Amino acid sequence: MSKLGNLGARLYRGEVGYDFIGKRKIWYGVSILITITAILGLTVRGLNMGIDFEGGAVFTTPKTSVSAAKAEEYAEKASGHDAIVQELGTGGLRVQIAGIDTGKSDQIAAELSKDMGIDANKINADLVGPSWGDTIANKAWQGLAIFMVLVVIYLAIAFEWRMAFAALVALIHDITITVGIYALVGFEVTPGTVIGLLTILGYSLYDTVVVFDSLKEQTKGIEKQTRWTYSDIANRSINSTLVRSINTTIVALLPVAGLLFIGGGFLGAGMLNDISLSLFVGLAAGAYSSIFIATPLVADLKEREPKMKALKKRVLAKRAAAAAQPEAPAVVGHQAEGSQGDEPEDAAPAGAGPRNQPSRNRGRGRPSGKRR
What we know:
Blueprint: H1 2-13, H2 24-44, E1 48-49, H3 51-54, E2 56-60, H4 68-79, E3 83-87, E4 93-98, H5 105-116, E5 124-128, H6 130-158, H7 161-185, E6 188-189, H8 191-218, H9 230-266, H10 270-302, H11 306-324
Parallel strand pairs: 1-6
Antiparallel strand pairs: 2-4, 2-5, 3-4
Helix pairs in contact: 1-9, 2-7, 2-10, 4-5, 6-7, 7-8, 7-10, 8-9, 8-10, 9-10
Protein backbone atom coordinates (compact mmCIF):
# COMPACT_ATOMS: atom_id res chain seq x y z
CA MET A 1 0.00 0.00 0.00
CA SER A 2 2.92 2.34 0.72
CA LYS A 3 4.30 1.67 -2.76
CA LEU A 4 0.92 2.52 -4.26
CA GLY A 5 0.83 5.73 -2.21
CA ASN A 6 4.32 6.67 -3.39
CA LEU A 7 3.30 5.97 -6.97
CA GLY A 8 0.22 8.16 -6.55
CA ALA A 9 2.33 11.01 -5.16
CA ARG A 10 4.81 10.73 -8.03
CA LEU A 11 1.99 10.66 -10.57
CA TYR A 12 0.43 13.72 -8.95
CA ARG A 13 3.73 15.66 -9.07
CA GLY A 14 4.30 14.68 -12.68
CA GLU A 15 7.51 12.76 -11.94
CA VAL A 16 6.19 9.66 -13.70
CA GLY A 17 3.27 9.14 -16.02
CA TYR A 18 1.71 7.13 -18.80
CA ASP A 19 0.91 8.63 -22.17
CA PHE A 20 -2.85 8.09 -22.24
CA ILE A 21 -3.50 10.88 -24.73
CA GLY A 22 -0.75 9.82 -27.12
CA LYS A 23 -2.23 6.30 -27.35
CA ARG A 24 -5.83 7.47 -27.58
CA LYS A 25 -6.41 5.82 -30.97
CA ILE A 26 -5.78 2.45 -29.35
CA TRP A 27 -8.36 3.16 -26.63
CA TYR A 28 -10.85 4.41 -29.21
CA GLY A 29 -10.38 1.19 -31.18
CA VAL A 30 -10.85 -1.01 -28.10
CA SER A 31 -14.00 0.89 -27.09
CA ILE A 32 -15.45 0.68 -30.59
CA LEU A 33 -14.79 -3.08 -30.68
CA ILE A 34 -16.45 -3.63 -27.28
CA THR A 35 -19.40 -1.43 -28.24
CA ILE A 36 -19.92 -3.26 -31.54
CA THR A 37 -19.86 -6.59 -29.68
CA ALA A 38 -22.45 -5.29 -27.21
CA ILE A 39 -24.69 -4.01 -30.02
CA LEU A 40 -24.42 -7.33 -31.88
CA GLY A 41 -25.34 -9.21 -28.72
CA LEU A 42 -28.30 -6.91 -28.20
CA THR A 43 -29.41 -7.32 -31.83
CA VAL A 44 -28.94 -11.08 -32.12
CA ARG A 45 -29.98 -12.30 -28.70
CA GLY A 46 -32.08 -9.40 -27.47
CA LEU A 47 -32.95 -8.66 -23.87
CA ASN A 48 -34.63 -11.22 -21.66
CA MET A 49 -37.50 -9.06 -20.50
CA GLY A 50 -39.20 -10.05 -17.26
CA ILE A 51 -42.88 -10.30 -16.59
CA ASP A 52 -42.94 -6.71 -15.34
CA PHE A 53 -42.39 -5.65 -18.95
CA GLU A 54 -44.04 -8.45 -20.95
CA GLY A 55 -46.82 -9.36 -18.56
CA GLY A 56 -47.42 -12.79 -17.07
CA ALA A 57 -47.88 -14.53 -13.76
CA VAL A 58 -45.83 -15.56 -10.75
CA PHE A 59 -46.92 -18.63 -8.78
CA THR A 60 -45.61 -19.16 -5.25
CA THR A 61 -45.98 -22.61 -3.72
CA PRO A 62 -45.68 -23.74 -0.09
CA LYS A 63 -42.92 -26.09 1.02
CA THR A 64 -42.63 -29.00 -1.37
CA SER A 65 -40.36 -31.92 -2.20
CA VAL A 66 -40.61 -31.26 -5.95
CA SER A 67 -37.31 -30.08 -7.42
CA ALA A 68 -36.98 -26.79 -9.29
CA ALA A 69 -36.14 -28.60 -12.54
CA LYS A 70 -39.24 -30.78 -12.29
CA ALA A 71 -41.45 -27.80 -11.43
CA GLU A 72 -40.08 -25.95 -14.46
CA GLU A 73 -41.05 -28.89 -16.65
CA TYR A 74 -44.57 -28.93 -15.20
CA ALA A 75 -44.98 -25.14 -15.64
CA GLU A 76 -43.88 -25.17 -19.27
CA LYS A 77 -46.21 -28.06 -20.07
CA ALA A 78 -49.15 -26.31 -18.39
CA SER A 79 -48.57 -22.88 -19.96
CA GLY A 80 -46.84 -23.56 -23.28
CA HIS A 81 -44.27 -20.86 -22.45
CA ASP A 82 -40.79 -20.80 -20.95
CA ALA A 83 -40.76 -20.75 -17.16
CA ILE A 84 -38.22 -19.66 -14.55
CA VAL A 85 -38.29 -21.47 -11.21
CA GLN A 86 -36.43 -20.37 -8.09
CA GLU A 87 -36.17 -22.09 -4.73
CA LEU A 88 -37.29 -20.01 -1.76
CA GLY A 89 -35.85 -20.00 1.73
CA THR A 90 -39.12 -21.40 3.06
CA GLY A 91 -38.70 -24.56 1.00
CA GLY A 92 -41.30 -23.48 -1.53
CA LEU A 93 -40.88 -22.54 -5.17
CA ARG A 94 -41.38 -19.36 -7.18
CA VAL A 95 -42.61 -20.14 -10.69
CA GLN A 96 -42.44 -17.24 -13.13
CA ILE A 97 -44.11 -17.46 -16.54
CA ALA A 98 -43.92 -14.46 -18.88
CA GLY A 99 -46.04 -13.65 -21.92
CA ILE A 100 -49.16 -15.60 -20.94
CA ASP A 101 -52.72 -14.37 -20.88
CA THR A 102 -53.60 -13.56 -17.30
CA GLY A 103 -56.97 -15.29 -17.84
CA LYS A 104 -55.19 -18.64 -18.04
CA SER A 105 -53.65 -18.27 -14.59
CA ASP A 106 -56.36 -20.29 -12.82
CA GLN A 107 -55.97 -23.14 -15.30
CA ILE A 108 -52.18 -23.16 -14.94
CA ALA A 109 -52.44 -23.07 -11.13
CA ALA A 110 -54.82 -26.04 -11.20
CA GLU A 111 -52.47 -28.11 -13.39
CA LEU A 112 -49.48 -27.20 -11.22
CA SER A 113 -51.32 -28.26 -8.06
CA LYS A 114 -52.22 -31.57 -9.70
CA ASP A 115 -48.72 -32.34 -11.02
CA MET A 116 -46.93 -31.21 -7.86
CA GLY A 117 -49.43 -32.68 -5.41
CA ILE A 118 -50.19 -29.35 -3.71
CA ASP A 119 -53.56 -27.95 -2.70
CA ALA A 120 -54.60 -25.36 -5.33
CA ASN A 121 -55.76 -22.95 -2.62
CA LYS A 122 -52.20 -22.84 -1.23
CA ILE A 123 -50.66 -21.70 -4.53
CA ASN A 124 -50.50 -17.92 -4.61
CA ALA A 125 -50.72 -16.28 -8.07
CA ASP A 126 -49.59 -12.71 -8.79
CA LEU A 127 -50.64 -11.35 -12.19
CA VAL A 128 -48.97 -8.55 -14.12
CA GLY A 129 -50.44 -7.00 -17.26
CA PRO A 130 -48.22 -5.85 -20.15
CA SER A 131 -49.41 -2.25 -19.77
CA TRP A 132 -47.61 -2.09 -16.43
CA GLY A 133 -44.33 -2.98 -18.14
CA ASP A 134 -44.89 -0.34 -20.82
CA THR A 135 -45.40 2.27 -18.12
CA ILE A 136 -42.18 1.30 -16.36
CA ALA A 137 -40.21 1.33 -19.63
CA ASN A 138 -41.56 4.75 -20.64
CA LYS A 139 -40.78 6.25 -17.24
CA ALA A 140 -37.26 4.82 -17.38
CA TRP A 141 -36.62 6.34 -20.83
CA GLN A 142 -38.02 9.68 -19.67
CA GLY A 143 -35.80 9.64 -16.58
CA LEU A 144 -32.75 8.77 -18.70
CA ALA A 145 -33.44 11.56 -21.19
CA ILE A 146 -34.00 14.17 -18.46
CA PHE A 147 -30.81 13.07 -16.70
CA MET A 148 -28.77 13.36 -19.90
CA VAL A 149 -30.08 16.84 -20.65
CA LEU A 150 -29.40 18.09 -17.11
CA VAL A 151 -25.89 16.63 -17.13
CA VAL A 152 -25.01 18.28 -20.44
CA ILE A 153 -26.37 21.66 -19.28
CA TYR A 154 -24.53 21.50 -15.95
CA LEU A 155 -21.18 20.44 -17.44
CA ALA A 156 -21.46 23.05 -20.18
CA ILE A 157 -21.94 25.75 -17.52
CA ALA A 158 -19.43 24.43 -14.99
CA PHE A 159 -16.75 23.57 -17.56
CA GLU A 160 -17.42 23.96 -21.30
CA TRP A 161 -19.43 22.37 -24.08
CA ARG A 162 -16.56 20.13 -25.22
CA MET A 163 -16.36 18.51 -21.80
CA ALA A 164 -20.14 18.17 -21.72
CA PHE A 165 -20.10 16.44 -25.11
CA ALA A 166 -17.26 14.11 -24.06
CA ALA A 167 -19.09 13.18 -20.84
CA LEU A 168 -22.25 12.44 -22.83
CA VAL A 169 -20.31 10.15 -25.20
CA ALA A 170 -18.82 8.35 -22.19
CA LEU A 171 -22.28 7.86 -20.65
CA ILE A 172 -23.71 6.42 -23.86
CA HIS A 173 -20.65 4.17 -24.10
CA ASP A 174 -21.20 2.85 -20.55
CA ILE A 175 -24.93 2.24 -20.96
CA THR A 176 -24.48 0.49 -24.33
CA ILE A 177 -21.85 -1.87 -22.92
CA THR A 178 -23.94 -2.64 -19.82
CA VAL A 179 -27.10 -3.38 -21.80
CA GLY A 180 -25.14 -5.44 -24.34
CA ILE A 181 -23.60 -7.60 -21.62
CA TYR A 182 -27.08 -8.12 -20.18
CA ALA A 183 -28.14 -9.44 -23.58
CA LEU A 184 -25.08 -11.70 -23.89
CA VAL A 185 -25.38 -13.12 -20.38
CA GLY A 186 -29.14 -13.55 -20.67
CA PHE A 187 -30.05 -12.14 -17.27
CA GLU A 188 -33.66 -11.14 -16.92
CA VAL A 189 -34.46 -7.44 -17.19
CA THR A 190 -36.58 -6.32 -14.26
CA PRO A 191 -37.33 -3.01 -12.54
CA GLY A 192 -34.21 -3.74 -10.46
CA THR A 193 -32.18 -3.67 -13.67
CA VAL A 194 -33.60 -0.27 -14.54
CA ILE A 195 -32.70 1.01 -11.08
CA GLY A 196 -29.15 -0.29 -11.52
CA LEU A 197 -28.79 1.33 -14.95
CA LEU A 198 -29.95 4.70 -13.66
CA THR A 199 -27.64 4.40 -10.65
CA ILE A 200 -24.48 3.79 -12.68
CA LEU A 201 -24.93 7.08 -14.52
CA GLY A 202 -23.86 9.00 -11.44
CA TYR A 203 -20.92 6.69 -10.79
CA SER A 204 -19.88 6.97 -14.43
CA LEU A 205 -19.72 10.75 -14.19
CA TYR A 206 -17.83 10.85 -10.88
CA ASP A 207 -14.33 10.07 -12.15
CA THR A 208 -14.94 12.05 -15.34
CA VAL A 209 -15.81 15.21 -13.42
CA VAL A 210 -12.78 14.77 -11.13
CA VAL A 211 -10.42 14.65 -14.14
CA PHE A 212 -12.24 17.56 -15.82
CA ASP A 213 -11.91 19.70 -12.69
CA SER A 214 -8.17 19.02 -12.51
CA LEU A 215 -7.85 19.78 -16.22
CA LYS A 216 -9.74 23.05 -15.87
CA GLU A 217 -7.47 24.22 -13.05
CA GLN A 218 -4.24 23.28 -14.81
CA THR A 219 -5.16 24.90 -18.13
CA LYS A 220 -5.82 28.38 -16.74
CA GLY A 221 -3.63 30.81 -18.67
CA ILE A 222 -2.29 28.03 -20.86
CA GLU A 223 -1.71 30.42 -23.80
CA LYS A 224 0.83 32.43 -21.76
CA GLN A 225 3.40 29.64 -21.63
CA THR A 226 5.27 27.61 -24.26
CA ARG A 227 6.19 24.52 -22.27
CA TRP A 228 3.07 22.35 -22.47
CA THR A 229 0.37 21.71 -25.07
CA TYR A 230 -3.24 21.11 -24.07
CA SER A 231 -2.80 17.38 -24.65
CA ASP A 232 0.24 17.37 -22.35
CA ILE A 233 -1.72 18.95 -19.52
CA ALA A 234 -4.70 16.64 -20.15
CA ASN A 235 -2.34 13.68 -19.84
CA ARG A 236 -0.97 15.06 -16.56
CA SER A 237 -4.51 15.51 -15.25
CA ILE A 238 -5.31 11.86 -15.90
CA ASN A 239 -2.09 10.68 -14.27
CA SER A 240 -2.54 12.93 -11.23
CA THR A 241 -6.00 11.46 -10.49
CA LEU A 242 -5.30 7.92 -11.71
CA VAL A 243 -4.61 6.25 -8.36
CA ARG A 244 -7.62 7.93 -6.74
CA SER A 245 -9.85 6.74 -9.59
CA ILE A 246 -8.54 3.18 -9.22
CA ASN A 247 -9.01 3.20 -5.43
CA THR A 248 -12.57 4.56 -5.53
CA THR A 249 -13.55 2.12 -8.28
CA ILE A 250 -12.17 -0.90 -6.40
CA VAL A 251 -13.87 0.16 -3.18
CA ALA A 252 -17.18 0.55 -5.02
CA LEU A 253 -16.82 -2.74 -6.92
CA LEU A 254 -16.06 -4.92 -3.88
CA PRO A 255 -19.52 -4.79 -2.23
CA VAL A 256 -21.22 -5.01 -5.63
CA ALA A 257 -19.13 -8.09 -6.45
CA GLY A 258 -20.25 -9.57 -3.14
CA LEU A 259 -23.88 -9.06 -4.13
CA LEU A 260 -23.32 -10.49 -7.60
CA PHE A 261 -21.17 -13.54 -6.93
CA ILE A 262 -22.22 -14.44 -3.39
CA GLY A 263 -25.77 -13.15 -3.09
CA GLY A 264 -26.78 -13.94 -6.66
CA GLY A 265 -24.49 -16.88 -7.44
CA PHE A 266 -24.56 -18.92 -4.23
CA LEU A 267 -27.79 -17.78 -2.62
CA GLY A 268 -29.74 -17.64 -5.88
CA ALA A 269 -31.36 -14.29 -5.16
CA GLY A 270 -32.74 -13.10 -8.49
CA MET A 271 -33.26 -9.45 -7.56
CA LEU A 272 -29.64 -9.22 -6.39
CA ASN A 273 -28.51 -10.44 -9.82
CA ASP A 274 -30.67 -7.86 -11.58
CA ILE A 275 -29.23 -4.90 -9.69
CA SER A 276 -25.66 -6.05 -9.03
CA LEU A 277 -24.77 -7.07 -12.61
CA SER A 278 -25.75 -3.67 -14.01
CA LEU A 279 -23.86 -1.92 -11.19
CA PHE A 280 -20.74 -4.09 -11.59
CA VAL A 281 -20.47 -3.67 -15.35
CA GLY A 282 -21.45 0.01 -15.22
CA LEU A 283 -18.89 0.91 -12.54
CA ALA A 284 -16.08 -0.81 -14.41
CA ALA A 285 -17.10 0.76 -17.73
CA GLY A 286 -17.43 4.19 -16.10
CA ALA A 287 -13.91 4.07 -14.66
CA TYR A 288 -12.58 3.00 -18.06
CA SER A 289 -14.44 5.66 -20.05
CA SER A 290 -13.40 8.55 -17.79
CA ILE A 291 -9.71 7.74 -18.37
CA PHE A 292 -9.60 6.35 -21.88
CA ILE A 293 -12.57 8.02 -23.61
CA ALA A 294 -13.78 11.29 -22.06
CA THR A 295 -10.50 13.13 -21.43
CA PRO A 296 -8.75 12.08 -24.68
CA LEU A 297 -11.88 13.18 -26.57
CA VAL A 298 -11.76 16.59 -24.86
CA ALA A 299 -8.09 16.92 -25.83
CA ASP A 300 -8.92 16.08 -29.45
CA LEU A 301 -11.67 18.69 -29.55
CA LYS A 302 -9.57 21.39 -27.86
CA GLU A 303 -6.56 20.83 -30.12
CA ARG A 304 -8.78 21.82 -33.07
CA GLU A 305 -9.12 25.37 -31.74
CA PRO A 306 -6.95 27.96 -33.57
CA LYS A 307 -5.35 29.23 -30.36
CA MET A 308 -4.51 25.69 -29.24
CA LYS A 309 -3.04 24.95 -32.67
CA ALA A 310 -0.89 28.08 -32.38
CA LEU A 311 0.19 27.08 -28.86
CA LYS A 312 1.13 23.60 -30.01
CA LYS A 313 3.17 25.09 -32.86
CA ARG A 314 5.09 27.34 -30.44
CA VAL A 315 5.70 24.53 -27.98
CA LEU A 316 6.98 22.16 -30.66
CA ALA A 317 9.20 24.91 -32.12
CA LYS A 318 10.71 25.61 -28.69
CA ARG A 319 11.33 21.91 -28.08
CA ALA A 320 12.98 21.54 -31.48
CA ALA A 321 15.23 24.53 -30.79
CA ALA A 322 16.17 23.14 -27.37
CA ALA A 323 16.96 19.76 -28.87
CA ALA A 324 19.18 21.36 -31.53
CA GLN A 325 21.34 23.22 -28.98
CA PRO A 326 24.53 21.38 -27.87
CA GLU A 327 24.69 20.45 -24.24
CA ALA A 328 26.84 22.71 -22.03
CA PRO A 329 30.01 21.01 -20.67
CA ALA A 330 29.78 19.93 -17.09
CA VAL A 331 31.83 21.90 -14.55
CA VAL A 332 33.73 19.62 -12.21
CA GLY A 333 35.34 20.84 -9.02
CA HIS A 334 35.89 24.44 -7.97
CA GLN A 335 36.13 27.37 -10.37
CA ALA A 336 39.56 28.26 -11.72
CA GLU A 337 41.18 31.52 -10.75
CA GLY A 338 40.15 34.52 -12.76
CA SER A 339 36.68 33.11 -13.55
CA GLN A 340 34.70 35.41 -11.27
CA GLY A 341 32.36 36.28 -14.13
CA ASP A 342 31.23 32.67 -14.60
CA GLU A 343 28.05 31.25 -13.10
CA PRO A 344 28.52 30.02 -9.51
CA GLU A 345 28.90 26.27 -9.13
CA ASP A 346 25.68 25.87 -7.12
CA ALA A 347 23.51 27.43 -9.83
CA ALA A 348 20.79 25.15 -11.25
CA PRO A 349 19.50 25.12 -14.81
CA ALA A 350 16.15 26.73 -15.48
CA GLY A 351 13.19 24.54 -14.54
CA ALA A 352 15.31 22.12 -12.54
CA GLY A 353 13.45 22.85 -9.33
CA PRO A 354 14.24 24.90 -6.20
CA ARG A 355 17.80 26.10 -5.85
CA ASN A 356 19.71 25.62 -2.63
CA GLN A 357 21.30 28.90 -1.67
CA PRO A 358 24.86 28.58 -0.29
CA SER A 359 25.32 29.51 3.34
CA ARG A 360 27.34 32.63 3.90
CA ASN A 361 29.44 33.06 7.02
CA ARG A 362 29.90 36.81 7.20
CA GLY A 363 31.75 36.63 10.49
CA ARG A 364 34.38 34.14 9.35
CA GLY A 365 37.63 34.78 11.24
CA ARG A 366 36.13 37.52 13.37
CA PRO A 367 34.76 37.55 16.91
CA SER A 368 30.97 37.37 16.78
CA GLY A 369 29.33 40.79 16.92
CA LYS A 370 32.60 42.77 16.86
CA ARG A 371 34.41 44.65 14.09
CA ARG A 372 38.10 45.46 13.97
